[in-house]
Each structure stands twice: as C-alpha cells, then as structure tokens.
Amino acid sequence: QVQLVESGGGLVQPGGSLGLSCAASKISFTYNDMNWYRQAPENKREWVASITHGGLINYTDSVQGRFTISRDNAKNTVYLQMSSLKPEDTAIYYCNIKQYWGLGTQVTVSG
Q1: Which of 10, 61, 86, 96 has the smallest CB count inside 10 Å?
Q2: pLDDT tens, per residue, the chain with 111 residues
C-alpha cells in the first residue's frame, strides 16, 4: 500500500531554518503533483506549497519567499526547505499525493 513518510521536523528558534522530506513508496512521483500542508493546534489543515509533475510551483502567501519546495523523482522524495521561520509556522506538516497523506512531522518555532 502507498506510504508517505515525512521527516526533518523539530524545534527551531525564530529566524532559523529547517528542512523537511517526504519519501513515498508504492506510488510514482513522476506523474503526480506533490503538496505540503500544515495544521496548527485548533486550526484547520491548510495548504502550504505544491509542485506539479511539470515543475510548476506555488506557495501560500504567508510562506512565499521563505519556503522552497522541490522534488527528486528518482528518489520518490519531495522536500520543503523553510527559512526565516516564525512562531506562527508552528504546526504539524503533512505531505500529500492525490488522496494519500503521511502522518506528519512536528515543526515548533520557539525561542
């Protein structure tokens, strides 16, 4: 069955950087669009960034210029590089392909 496994979360001070990865198994990245979402406590899950199979990239306004999404089809992995992190970026970050979701990785921005 399809599995998405996020990694790279942790605790970082405001202004710091963190890189997330999402590795997929039993599904090919090559022809699928990839998404990152996040969910803060007591908030709805929100879309953060996406990269299409053709390489088109979009970000939600609040992370534009600070986050970078990328993909490595050969490794079946999508990445989210986050910089200039703010306390409001604190959330569980999930990757998504079609109807599939990972279990998420916690990112906490606190100093």
Answers
A1: 61
A2: 999 999 999 999 999 999 999 999 998 878 899 999 999 988 999 999 999 999 999 999 999 999 999 999 999 999 999 999 999 999 999 999 999 999 999 999 998
